[in-house]
Every structure is written in C-alpha cells, then in structure tokens.
Amino acid sequence: MTDFTRRDSFRLLAAAPLLTTGLHRAAWAMKAEKSSAQPDWSRLVIDGMLHRTPDPRNLSGWGYAVSLFLYGQYLFYKRTKERKYLDYIQGWVDKHVNDGGVIDRPITALDYVLPGNLLLILHKETGQKKYKTAADTIRHTFDNYPRTEDGGFWHALSRQHQLWLDGIFMGMPFLVRYGVAYGESKYTFDEAAKQFQIYASHLNDPKSGLMFHAYDESGAQPWADPSTHHSAYFWCRAIGWFGMALIEVLELMPHSHPQREKLIAQLRQLCEAYTRYQDKETGLWFQIVDKGDDPNNWRETSSSCMYTYTLSMAVKRGYIAKRYAEVAAKGYKGVLTQLSKDDDGFGHIANICEGTNVGDLAYYYNRPRRTDDFHGLGAFLIMNEHMRTV
To answer: What's the CA gap between 274 and 208, in Å, rounded?
Structure first.
C-alpha cells in the first residue's frame, strides 16, 4: 500500500504542470467568456443611430454636435475597419462640402470649426483634394477671426466679446491637427497654448478647481458679474469640453513646447476638481457640478463621459497619479448605468443635457434631459473607445 501511494504521488507531481496549465486555461476561458458577454456598446449605439437615420444626409446641418458623434464613430471605425462606418461619415460631409471644397455655410462661430476634424480625417483616408480645400477655409478663418482685447477668440460673431469654455474644444484640436498634418504646427501649437491660457485667465476658479461657463469682456450680458464679467455657475459640459481639449492638444504638442507644463498644470487642477465633485453614490457628475446636494440638480451623462475620459487619459499619459484611475473606473461604471438596449438590440443613452447657452441656475436645472442626443453619443464614443483599452 505504501509503495502504491508513493508511485501515485510521483504521478500527481508529474502531472501538476499540466493540471496548472489546465486551470490557467480555464481561468482565461472564463475571462474571455465574461469579456465576450459584455455588449459592444459603441456598436450598439452607432447602429441604433444608423438604423434611425440610414441616410447620413438626413442628419442635421454643418455643426458641432453631429460631427462630435461622427468623430466618435470614426474611432470605432479605426477599431473595426468596417468600411460602412467611414462611408456614413463621408456621406454626411459630402452633403455639406461640394466637389470644389466649398462648405455650405460660413464659419461664423467656433461651433462650425469642429466638423473640420472630419475633413482632416477624410483627406487622410481618401486623398480627395476637396477635403483639404475645405479644411484650408476653416484654418484661414482664424486669420481674421474676432478676438477679445487680450487675444481670445470670440465664441461666435453673434456672441461679441464673449469667451465660452465650449469654444476651446470646438476650435483648438482642429487647429493643432491641421498644423501637424500640413506643416504649420509652430503657429497652431502657439495659438492653442495662448487660447487655453487666455480662457483660463477669465474663467478659472482656483478655489474650487472648476471653471465658469463664459466670460463677457464688455460686461453687457445679464449673466456677467459686474467686476469679473464671468458667468456665475459651473456648468458640467462646458468644463468637460475644456478638459478634453487639453488632452487632445497635449497628445500632439511637443514635450519641448515652452507652454506645455502650464497646460498640464491646468489639467491637473481640473482632474482634482473632477474627483472632489464626483457623486460618491453613482460615480456620475451633476449638471451644476458643485451643487450635488441641491434636490433640483441632476446627474448628467455627456459630462460624465468627458470627465471619465479626461481622467483616464491623464493617468495613462502620466499627467496625474495612478490613484485617479479608480475615479475614472467609477465614472465609467456610472455612465454604463445610463445605457440600455431596446427590443431590437440597439443601444440608447439617457439623461443627456441638450444644447445649452449661458443662464441662471434655474435655466441650467430646467434644461431638457434627452436620450440619444448627439452631445452624449459623441462624448460616450470617445470615452468608450478609450476605456475599452485600459
């Protein structure tokens, strides 16, 4: 009996590596099965939009919100390489840009600059000259675009003397991408760095770490503080636009650029503020960021996507400590609670604030909460395509 037990023990020891390998394989299989069970929310959200609007020419006109969604769709296309998603983007752009490269509306606001990112993409993907021609038009709009006395680009010709945080994301990522693509990076990086610092000089709040929505140099707007001329409230998506713009510009800016560290310092301040004001219960952020205790306030999805993306990218690039990854993970988990599937299997995103001007507290609180608004779809896709990789 003793001899048998000893031989049996030797057999078991010899088999141990195989048993261990089998256990490892089983663990990997379980992990793969769990991963495959998770919906590809990017695909479900995009396919839902393509199902509702199969012809991209029936989407809205040349503007920032729909192009934000289509930019997010391009990130999904880069992952999947499924041509129909790029064709859909091209179909929308071609509705608004003729064969001579003329855009069907004048660039009278920074909001109309953001679609220029799609022109850069399509010129790279297709080589068609008209996209470069149209991008040139947008680039040279900045040559004579109106500015505040200290050099900040007005939000729009119709918003005279005003700087809105939103405008940084509308204009600066396009400008630096154009500069890198077409040999004008010195000007475009210098201009972008200048704009970030001008906007921050009027809209930054060192006490909270957050940023006010808008500034009116003239002081004429009813929302403008009599002494500072900035608006009164910390509106969530405006601050999200600014944070994402910092990330996108820093992705391309040379490490040797003399203003780079100032931009990183502003990003660090925002990330700390995002962390401070995150809703501990859900991981989301509120419509008015610093008033989470107000029962009239509500948790808003597009900004939560933006903050999550900015935090996670800042960790990935080493701008902030690794501990912030937990904040981003909690934000991502919170955003996913706002997604659902319909009976056809398409994805939907809830509690997205629609397009918003500058106003008083009641105005922000009473903004309609939309499902599948382009602001939220685009922000989600940018965030989700990144978070899938971390």
So the answer is: 10
pTM metric for this prediction: 0.91
Structure tokens at 153: 């680009």
**CA-CA distance, 241 to 304, in Å (whole number)?**
11
Mean pLDDT over all residues of the chain? Answer: 93
Please report the sign of the dihedral spanned by the C-alpha atoms of residue 114, residue 120, residue 121, residue 122. Answer: positive
The whole-angstrom separation of Cα 278 and Cα 61 is 34
Q: What is the mean pLDDT of residues 228-243?
A: 98
Tokens of 351: 């509690």
Q: Is residue 166 annotated as a catalytic residue, yes or no?
A: yes
The span from the CA of 203 to the CA of 195, in Å, is 12
Catalytic residue, candidates 8, 40, 150, 166: 166
On the question of pLDDT at 12 being above 80, the answer is no
Q: Is 210 helix (H, G, I), strand (E, B) or coil?
A: coil
pLDDT-based confidence at residue 10 (cuts at 50, 70, 90): very low
**DSSP β-ladder status, 352-353 and 369-370:** antiparallel
User: How many angstroms separate the CA atoms of 186 and 175, rounded?
Assistant: 11
The amino acid that residue 40 corresponds to is D
Answer yes or no: are the C-beta atoms of 205 and 151 closer than 8 Å.
no
Question: What's the count of helices (H) and strands (E) in the chain, helices before strands?
Answer: 14, 8
The amino acid occupying position 386 is: H
